[in-house]
Design a protein that fits this description.
The protein has 201 residues and is an alpha/beta fold. 42% of the residues lie in helices and 12% in strands. A hairpin with a 5-residue loop joins strand 2 and strand 3.
């Protein structure tokens, strides 16, 4: 009995340590469905937009977060201190306009996502262009395909198309032409080519 308990605890410890953590979400959004079954890569960079148009950015790769925020600070002349840069790099997601970043970093405690205004992405002021530029600069020297694999867009199914178009334009302005869209998986339609190929396997 003792040996069985030891084995059970060893297995439990293994599964806890080996399990992949779900990437943090700014706000829960209801994504469209698709038959694709590809898993979200580790350390993804996720742009999330809600039905009412609020946009958030999660810099999932801890090894590059500091480089991204430092590049944004330098290129946009934000004047963030070392402590403020460290706090921004540790944030799970970003949801403030660039001109409000400094003020938000001086607020004690964590601000919930529903209290954040989101990153502006309208045609007159698309700040996602600057964020993606800093991301691109931080990953300079690596293969473009690696960065493209990490870039995810997660949008609410009820969001209007112009919101997605603004994000797509931000990618295009930075000469990034490939990214992934996060969807909820569903079974392929009966009789479809994908359904028949899966049935054979």
């Amino acid at each position: 009995m003792t040996a069985m308990c030891d084995v059970a605890f060893l297995l439990l410890s293994f599964f806890i340590l080996a399990t992949k953590q779900k990437p943090p979400e700014a706000l829960a959004v209801k994504t469209p469905t698709s038959v694709s079954a590809k898993a979200v890569p580790d350390k993804s960079i996720i742009i999330t937009f809600t039905a009412d148009g609020k946009t958030f950015l999660a810099l999932g790769d801890d090894t590059k977060k500091e480089a991204v925020v430092k590049n944004l600070n330098d290129t946009r002349n934000l004047g963030l201190s070392e402590a403020e840069l460290n706090k921004l790099a540790k944030a799970e997601f970003i949801g403030f306009p660039i001109n409000q970043l400094k003020g938000s970093l001086n607020i004690s405690g964590t601000i919930p996502a529903d209290k954040m205004p989101g990153i502006p992405i309208d045609s007159a002021n698309n700040e996602m262009v600057y964020w993606l530029k800093s991301i691109s600069n931080a990953y300079a020297g690596t293969e473009q395909s690696k960065l493209e694999q990490m870039l995810l867009v997660k949008g609410d199914i009820n969001a209007h198309y112009p919101i997605f178009k603004s994000i797509k334009d931000a990618f295009k302005d930075n000469e990034i032409y490939k990214f992934r869209i996060v969807t909820d998986g569903e079974a392929p339609p009966v009789g479809s080519e994908l359904y028949n190929s899966e049935k054979k396997n």
